[in-house]
Design brief:
Order of helices and strands: HHHHHHHHHEHHHHEHH
Oligomer: single chain
Shape: globular
Low-confidence stretches: 1-12, 14-20, 311-315, 317-337
Radius of gyration: 19 Å
Mean pLDDT: 89
Structural class: mainly alpha
Strand content: under 5%
Distance between the termini: 17 Å
Length: about 325
């Protein structure tokens, strides 16, 4: 893992925070989350729709926990951390693919790059011009919040599966191994679920889609196209239930300044250096998710075509993780950006 992504390497801005102590809050969260998940699974045949609706935030929180785990929490060993999220409760995204693509995303000079940022929804203007009217309409609809939440999970998974299938056919055995491990774990999860009399797999898959859609709310505008790299990541000063479900990754500029800070330190870091963070990200800040919903529910937040790419533009050079264009052919997995 690159030094800048190490959970033990704090940036100077947050130097006063102690991140070396044992991270019991993350371990407690993992245990508690799985206990609630099991309780809801057994309650579902009796509680019906309410239980499946309650699974949506639990599965959202599980994805947020996966994001925390891939950044090296709560243990130093990647496999030990993986064991906390080994069962793919959210079904759709293989953990090791999420990890590889997300670490590539943390090469900040490539943020929003249509080719080198695997979590970017922007398109090269030349590619945009070549799209059919139907494709343009689809992508424009996805640049509204409602469109992103309804269509984003489908589009994200289609892009991931098609890109990974192409990469596997070109000899990417690591991607094949990630999918094989995921499918084995998924088969085990689904087998365990059907052992519960009366449990509905279709309803569970709908809950998984709902959780993915809820994550699309978090990722909807966490990055923007700006010349200054530091101005590309958002701060959403929301301390409500959604911020908790996202493990305060809503303070996204703070997370990109120091990806090693655990979730329960992000608010403290932001409070200590709020003025510096907002100066550094160009004031890219929203008060709450309610403000975002009101503003962008049915209005596109920006054009699909990347506004900074001109005729002389060249792809961003690979970063410390090797770059995406060279090593990560699959595009777009926004479950835990």
């Amino acid at each position: 893992m690159p030094e800048s992504l190490s959970p033990r390497a704090s940036r100077p801005l947050f130097q006063g925070l102690d991140v070396r102590r044992f991270e019991w809050p993350t371990l407690a969260l993992a245990i508690g989350l799985h206990c609630v998940f099991v309780a809801l699974v057994f309650a579902a045949p009796h509680a019906g729709l309410l239980a499946y609706l309650a699974l949506v935030p639990v599965l959202t929180l599980h994805s947020s926990l996966q994001h925390e785990v891939l950044h090296g929490h709560p243990f130093r060993a990647a496999r030990a951390n993986w064991m906390l999220v080994a069962l793919p409760l959210g079904v759709f995204v293989p953990y090791w693919r999420f990890r590889a693509l997300h670490i590539a995303h943390h090469h900040d000079p490539a943020l929003t790059d249509p080719y080198d940022d695997p979590e970017s929804w922007y398109r090269d203007p030349r590619d945009w011009a070549a799209l059919s009217p139907a494709s343009r309409l689809f992508l424009t609809a996805m640049n509204t919040l409602v469109g992103r939440m309804l269509l984003g999970p489908l589009a994200g998974m289609a892009g991931l599966v098609v890109g990974d299938a192409r990469a596997i056919l070109h000899g990417r055995h690591d991607i094949l191994a990630a999918w094989a491990e995921h499918l084995v774990a998924l088969a085990l999860l689904l087998w365990l679920l059907v052992q519960v009399p009366g449990f509905s797999l279709p309803a569970y898959l709908a809950a998984c889609y709902g959780a993915y859609a809820l994550l699309c709310l978090r990722t909807f505008l966490e990055h923007r196209a700006e010349d200054a790299v530091g101005h590309r990541s958002v701060v959403i000063e929301d301390n409500g239930p959604l911020a908790v479900l996202f493990l305060f990754n809503s303070l996204h500029a703070v997370h990109h300044l120091d990806p090693g800070l655990p979730w329960y330190r992000l608010r403290e870091a932001y409070a200590r250096d709020r003025a510096s963070v907002l100066a550094g990200n160009g004031g890219y800040c929203y008060r709450s998710y309610a403000q975002i919903i009101r503003r962008y529910a049915f209005r596109a937040k920006e054009p699909v075509a990347h506004p900074l790419i001109g005729e002389a533009w060249a792809p961003c050079p690979p970063g410390p993780s090797g770059g995406v264009s060279a090593t990560e052919p699959a595009k777009r997995v926004s479950a835990g950006a």
